Amino acid sequence: MPIHELAALGAATCWALTGLISAGPAGHLGAPTFNRVRQIFVTGLLTIYVIVTGTWRELDMATVGPLLLSGFIGIFIGDTLLFSALNRLGPRRSGILFALNAPIAALLGWLVLDEALPPLALAGIALTASGVFLAIIFGKRRAQMHEWETIKGPLSVGVLLGLGAATGQAIGSIIARPVMETGLDPFVASLLRVGVAAACLSVMAQLPIASVKPKGPLTPKVLAMTALTGVTALAIGMTLLLFALSGGKVGIVSTLSATSPAIILPMLWLRTGERPAAGAWAGAALVILGMGLIFIR
């Protein structure tokens, strides 16, 4: 049973759902405030868990440092850039840019961790990545007029933000991988990674910079939706990713966790009532075929 690969797919599903839920509150609050509120909420939940279960005792100085660095790069920087891209490009376009973390992580896994991938896995990664890109590039028909397809501001800025988010996620995964191989509880690792990101964003919020201040008021509805995205993406999705990294290769895990753009297609259809183009479904089929090759041992 490819439990670690399935966990990576579970993370991708969580992030696809988060992309839909986040569009409203992230645009209302602004990316820094939205990210800070949800990270503080999730940090509180994870703190309660590790105290009650006693899993905090698994930590030592050799694991704390890398996990804090992983959280700083992968969540504080990566997530903030991702939601900035989401506000500008919408969930579909920001999804394809974020999916680039898969080939970036595979390259880093080869360069840094000396991971050798078998030929079938390489073919699966190539097919999966191609399917993700195809699903997003051809995911819009001309008749689709939903507001999520509107580009806000220069396209180049949105593209750079998405590429930065993908790179941050890939580097964060590479740093966390050796620590997770030791068998550390994924919830403890998530607490450190999310906690350092929440602390950094809280400090940044005190700076006299207009772009880090809330764009709109934190209403009960916005707070509830923001908390829900935190539970879905960070408490569940990120923990699933860390578990996947504890036993799966970075390139494979990152590729499977980057299938969110294909998974989000039926979710977008249900949410907007606008059917994705035929090319989008063809891309999703490639993703499924690629995952089948990755699962072969």
Describe this structure in words.
The protein is an all-alpha fold and 297 residues long. It has one domain (3-295). 78% of the residues lie in helices and 0% in strands. The protein contains eleven helices and no strands. Helix 3 packs antiparallel against helix 6. The radius of gyration is 18 Å and the shape is globular. It starts with a helix and ends with a helix. The mean pLDDT is 83.
Summary keywords:
11 helices; single chain; 297 residues
Helix and strand topology:
Layout: H1 3-29, H2 31-53, H3 61-98, H4 101-112, H5 119-137, H6 155-180, H7 186-205, H8 220-247, H9 250-257, H10 260-272, H11 278-295
Helix pairs in contact: 1-2, 1-3, 1-8, 1-9, 1-10, 2-7, 2-8, 3-5, 3-6, 3-7, 4-6, 4-9, 5-9, 5-10, 5-11, 6-8, 7-8
Domain count: 1
**Please, what is the average pLDDT?**
83
Helix content estimate: over 70%
Sum up the overall morphology in one term.
globular
Oligomer: single chain
The count of helical stretches stands at 11
N-to-C SSE string, H for helix and E for strand: HHHHHHHHHHH
For the terminal residues, how far apart are their CA atoms? 10 Å
Proportion of residues in β-strands: under 5%
Major sheet characteristics: none
Using the CA coordinates, give the radius of gyration.
18 Å
Name the structural class: mainly alpha
- Number of DSSP strand runs: 0
Uncertain residue segments: none
Quick recap of the structure?
The chain has 297 residues and is an all-alpha fold. 78% of the residues lie in helices and 0% in strands. The protein has one domain (3-295).
